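Methods — Computational structure assignment.
A single polypeptide chain was analysed. Its primary sequence is given first, followed by the predicted tertiary structure written as structure tokens.
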Amino acid sequence: MARRRHKKRTHVGAQNGPSNGISANSSAIRGPKTMVIRMGAGDVGSSVSQLVKDVRSMMEPGTASILKERKSNRLRDYTTMAGPLGISHLLLFSRSSPGNTNLRLALFPRGPTLHFRVERYSLCKDVRKALRHPKGGGKDYLSPPLLVMNNFVSPEGENQSKQSVPKHLETLSTTIFQSLFPPISPQSTPLSSIRRVLLLDRQMPKSAATAGSTEVSPYVINLRHYAIMTKPTGLSRGVRRINAAARTLKERASRKGMPNLGNLEDVADYILDPSAAGAGFTSGSESEMDTDAEVEVLDMSHRKVLNKKQLQEARRSEGDGQHGGAGAQKRAVKLVELGPRMTLRMTKVEEGLCGGKVMWHEYLSKSEDEIREMEKIWETRKREKAERKRVQKENVEKKQKTKASTGEATDEAQEGVLDEDESDDSEGWDDEVSEMEQNPK
């Protein structure tokens, strides 16, 4: 008799499956995931569509890079699938009737939502055309970028106008942007995995606009995306050419770029003679690179374990005048822009997921009485919503008891209570449902 087959790849007990009782959708084993969406699909235009693709590549690897949208898709379609896919953030690009490009950054599933107007943007292809030596993709997008934020919190003693963002909303926006990417631990994260930098720089309002003036002080963020390039310093141009050619030979079987040393008697002639390699150690400027900074990096390669006597001899031979550890080396760091560029201006902050109570608005300001009146309205809506859910739950329980007593199938009674995410919080969804009821196909 043939032995029964046991599936070991996709079923419970598989070696590559989740262990220790942790499910695949558990937040303990997953990082933040984003979904970059074009609202209206092709209606936003070709430039905004390309901008969405560039933003998806910037958010790699924790994003849906090949997401396909349709014109008929609504926000509810994406929020329905965001839960099973483990999505934590939604980036919604849209285009208004006057032609303004807007961006909504929302936390799933409860909000809040930050509304931005994209005042200016440059695509990746435009950035590459402007650079003399552009850098391509490759392995840079296999790990999330390093997030650098500047000026997101205003100084304590600064005078703020009525239109500026309050302190607690500044902290809220900072937390939302920080949660876009997984946190980095300096002790456990290897430096070789950090290959990109995402820079968010807030433009601080001018002092003249905030000191006793009614002019609006906007909340503007400049977004830049860079690739990190490192090279060893203190080497001549000839030695750098040999190192680059050696790395090329390892990657592909080609001798392109390898300098010709056949006419030289010794390799020292190539390194020390400036006429042989075009540069040698004759001047300090020829051995230096055009860099942004210099850092000391520990050599992560495997080294031989030394005993106590050999370790003392190695320390004695190094001397006391050297900087850095035994495996440290100086490397030049240079940032090469990848794109895209965006200038974002915050216009509104909402409490829910693309809806709900408005926490702050750039162009509209309300008095204390109007704020208290709006609070009463929202409290009334919450009570009405809780009452509807209670009545709905009672109706479901009555239906289940009736069908159980009559012996009928209870499949239809297992609908349950609607979740808050599927409730009618957004007025736009209510309008869509009412239009469908009035105009059935």
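Note: The mean pLDDT is 75.
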